[in-house]
Design a protein that fits this description.
By secondary structure, the chain is an alpha+beta fold. It contains six helices and seven strands; from the N terminus they run αααββββαββαβα. Strand 3 and strand 4 form a beta hairpin. It is globular, with a radius of gyration of 16 Å.
Length: about 200
Amino acid sequence: MNAAIAAVVVIGVAAAVAQIRAADEAEATVIAPPHRTVDPAVAEARLLDSVLYVDDWREFGNPVGFTYVPKSRPPGLVSLGPGNPPNLSGGSHEGSGNGAHIDSYRLDGLFVAVEFSARPTETCTNAQDPPRAICVRDNKPTVPDPEDITLRHTTAYFTAGNTGNLKSKKADVAKRFWADAEFVPVTQAPWYNELVTRAEAAVQQ
């Protein structure tokens, strides 16, 4: 996977999620949680909507990712979503072509892809192709070690629609965060669970 493909993968996450949600409503045979949205008038509605989507899949018994998340909230977080589209036939969600699972975080002007795998992949090597993509992490940050070995190694890389954003001050802040952030089980991340609580309180009836 070269950097251009990596960019397409991450940038396409939002479109893929939108298509999946449309399929939820259009296909009676789809095995998925009910489609819910938050009140668009509430603060951070876009972020809350994305968290609600991920948490609904978790509660449905077929998580789409985000087993581990940063211990503290990522700066500039706008939304998040699965890097690998959900399996709408009822089966377990599959990873990417190299067997890794990808969680996607959208920041202000940047996309961050966090790849979980059993061992190092070639993603960082392929993503080191400025100005389209930059790799900021390729190590083992999870605490404690996941029982699922496929979650033990992490890679994080950035892409941006405007490549100038990869050189911005916001990008520098993001690089420092994602290079060193400690990842913990999602149940141990207060910031994430606070967003879930807010999202549930803002669900449109």
